[in-house]
Write a structure and sequence with these properties.
The chain is α+β, with helices and mostly antiparallel strands and about 150 residues long. It is about 55% helix and about 15% strand. Helix 2 packs across helix 6 and helix 3 runs parallel beside helix 4.
């Protein structure tokens, strides 16, 4: 049984080395954002949707706001941008609401590990980054440069 436990322990180590290998390369801001959103989702620091996002921004508990570019309601976009500007919250945009919804867990994961039944999400606010990571540093540098 000790051999089996060693084999099982070896598999997560390989899986843990794969993201580290990716981190060794220059990480793009989209990948960094995806990793930061997953980390903050695991720590319960994500507000999804307009109502939760607006409450978090107005309470000054928002560190980062992410808005989908394909949102078809101009009033929605105008409100989120105005709230972020008034409360000095960083704002990033992503191309698709379905992608953003998948990144923040609004989907079902099938047995192969692929996302199914993805629900679109036009606005996400990060209230708690969780723990410090390389992706968070890349994202902060990207925010400083823009």
């Amino acid at each position: 049984m000790a051999g089996e436990e060693g084999a099982v322990a070896a598999v997560p180590v390989v899986a843990a080395e794969t993201p580290a290998a990716l981190l060794g390369e220059k990480m793009d801001p989209d990948t960094a954002l995806q990793l930061v959103l997953r980390k903050s989702l695991a720590h319960g620091g994500v507000a999804r949707g307009l109502h939760e996002a607006a409450k978090a921004i107005e309470k000054h508990s928002a560190h980062l706001c992410v808005l989908a570019e394909d949102c078809d309601q101009p009033d929605y976009v105008k409100l989120v941008k105005a709230l972020c500007a008034d409360h000095n919250c960083n704002l990033l945009t992503v191309p698709a609401a379905k992608t953003l919804g998948e990144w923040v867990g609004l989907c079902k994961i099938d047995s192969e590990g692929k996302a199914r039944k993805v629900v679109g999400c036009s606005c996400v606010v990060v209230k708690d980054y969780g723990e410090e990571s390389e992706a968070l540093h890349v994202l902060r540098e990207h925010l400083k440069s823009h």
